[in-house]
Design brief:
With about 375 residues, the protein is of the alpha/beta class. Helix content is about 30%, strand content about 25%.
């Protein structure tokens, strides 16, 4: 039981790096000797020390000796030179005699090699403790590393009768403060936030992260086939402060220059039947180093994203309210006629945020 307790502590530490380490994985590490934690750390920021080295640093600062200790780490230690030296070297030099790994690294230059190097140095290595939890911790990294495409989460808020706006078009605010805080935590965790141009025109959103704690604002991506994003919109006016990408199929060079002068980055993407080609866009932004995207669009973009099969998770926020009428729904498009063709979801988590219910679902294609 204590073994699991130490790995759970490492997982808790790893989560503190959410939103700061992308496109690296979140990793936590705990050093234990004689049944007590003598050092701990996590990967705090992209380019900074990895979790294992931070844990060893903490151990030294506490005045503790790591000789003969056990290291619990959520992800296989790296064995290559990147922005920092290999963690395997630091572990071997530390005198640690046992390493317990939550899950192996999917990165082909590490996978299995880190554990092998430690074993060849006489260190006892065990893998698979709380493996499911450790894998879920880095679902973003795992997809990006294996496919070079971003992990995509769709979020929408709706009433108990499935409406995202009243009959007059009013949509602020369907859910309460705690549910909206949950959204800002998602914005903090994911690298980019994506909406359609209709959302920009209707709501003039800032698309930033507003929490009373240090945050990195996500890159803002506007899907705008015909360059209709207003030049005086908040996203354009703040493009020099927060990276803003407009994905378009327009090749109007004069108009493109107007956006670029204001700090926007323009990506020209082929047209699909529902707007910009989202699969092509995901490939391009993956090549730019964007490992994750939060879709907060309307029904049209949501339908297009699901039809394009780019969505990995859907977070549904349900408010205990009834709007009635025939107002907008969270997913529009042409819909299906055969119930067997429905896109299926696997609920993986439920959260109560005040009076609102949040259901997190894995999308099954």
């Amino acid at each position: 039981m204590k073994e699991k307790m130490f790995m759970k502590r490492a997982i808790t530490l790893a989560k503190l790096g959410a939103g700061f380490v992308n496109p690296n994985p979140m990793v936590g590490a705990v050093i234990v000797k004689d049944g007590k934690i003598i050092g701990e750390g996590y990967h705090k920021k992209y380019g900074d020390l990895h979790a294992e080295r931070n844990a060893l640093k903490d151990c030294r600062q506490r005045g503790n000796d790591s000789t003969g200790a056990t290291l619990y780490v959520t992800l296989e230690p790296c064995c290559h030179h990147g922005k920092t030296p290999p963690c395997t070297e630091a572990i071997i030099e530390s005198g640690i005699t046992r390493v317990v790994i939550g899950t192996l690294d999917v990165n082909p230059i590490v996978s299995g090699r880190g554990a092998e190097i430690l074993r060849n140095s006489g260190i006892r290595v065990e893998t698979g403790l709380l493996e499911k939890e450790c894998k879920e911790l880095n679902c973003i990294f795992n997809k990006y590393m294996t496919e070079k495409r971003p992990y995509v989460v769709m979020k929408y808020a709706m009433t108990a009768d499935g409406k995202i706006a009243t009959v007059s078009g009013e949509s602020k605010w369907i859910t309460g403060d705690l549910a909206r805080e949950n959204v800002h935590r998602l914005r903090k965790k994911l690298s980019a936030i994506m909406v359609g141009v209709s959302t920009v025109i209707a709501d003039n959103p800032r698309l930033d992260c507003r929490l009373d704690e240090p945050v990195n604002n996500p890159v803002r991506i506007i899907c705008d086939s015909h360059l209709r994003t207003p030049l005086d919109s908040q996203v354009v006016k703040t493009a020099n402060d927060i990276e803003t990408i407009i994905a378009t199929s327009s090749e109007d060079k004069t108009l493109i220059q107007e956006y670029e002068k204001r700090g926007c980055k323009i990506i020209v993407v082929p047209q699909s039947k529902n707007g910009v080609d989202l699969n092509h866009l995901m490939k391009l932004i993956g090549e730019m180093g964007i490992d994750s995207v939060l879709i907060e669009g309307g029904g049209t973009l949501n339908y297009s994203a699901l039809e394009s099969k780019i969505v990995d998770e859907i977070h549904v926020h349900i408010a205990p309210k009834i709007f009635g009428g025939s107002s907008k729904s969270p997913v529009e498009g042409i819909g299906i006629s055969d119930i067997n063709q429905a896109i299926k979801l696997n609920p993986i988590n439920t959260i109560w945020a005040g009076e609102d219910l949040i259901i997190e679902n894995e999308v099954i294609y």
